[in-house]
Design brief:
Strand content: under 5%
Number of helices: 7
Helix content: 55-70%
Radius of gyration: 15 Å
Strand order of the largest sheet: 1-2
Number of domains: 1
CATH superfamily: Hypothetical protein af1432
CATH topology: Hypothetical protein af1432
CATH class: Mainly Alpha
């Protein structure tokens, strides 16, 4: 695990409610917790690359925290009768509500969480560099996790 995750978000990573995401599957055999950590690590890699080639950076702390909380919806979206049929459109709002309840999140972190499903949700366009990075990292990780479950 990238040491910057612990540096910026040890309070999140060690939180009992956050750790409960281990029991929910995201894609294939990957838990929501594993997926969120992968998205945070991938976001840092993208940020590092952008910093190297463009000489522009972003807030690593908010990038990491927003990435770790982007899927903090705390339910099994695969349950057919639980009303999660529109999960792709609704889970970001649930994650944001939970993140605001459990953590003191910044506006950048809120933007990351709320808008990471763009372009599926066309009305929620990322409004900062950090949100764009997490949005792309999430798509990349989701693709890899989905391909890995195929034969």
């Amino acid at each position: 695990m990238d040491t910057r995750l612990k540096k910026y978000a040890e309070d999140i990573l060690t939180n009992e409610t956050y750790q409960s995401m281990k029991k929910y599957i995201q894609h294939g055999r990957v838990s929501v917790l594993e997926h969120s950590v992968r998205v945070a690590e991938t976001s840092l890699a993208i940020s590092d690359y952008l910093k190297k080639i463009t000489k522009t950076g972003c807030s690593e702390k908010e990038l990491v925290r927003g990435a770790l909380l982007h899927d903090y919806f705390l339910y099994d979206w695969h349950e057919k009768n639980a009303g999660h049929g529109l999960h792709g459109f609704t889970h970001a709002a649930a994650a944001l509500k939970n993140a605001r309840k459990d953590y003191d999140i910044s506006e950048i972190e809120a933007d990351i969480i709320e808008k990471h499903m763009f372009p599926l949700n066309l009305t929620k366009v990322p409004g900062c560099r950090e949100a764009w990075i997490v949005t792309m990292a999430d798509k990349y990780c989701s693709l890899i996790e989905t391909i890995a479950m195929r034969k």
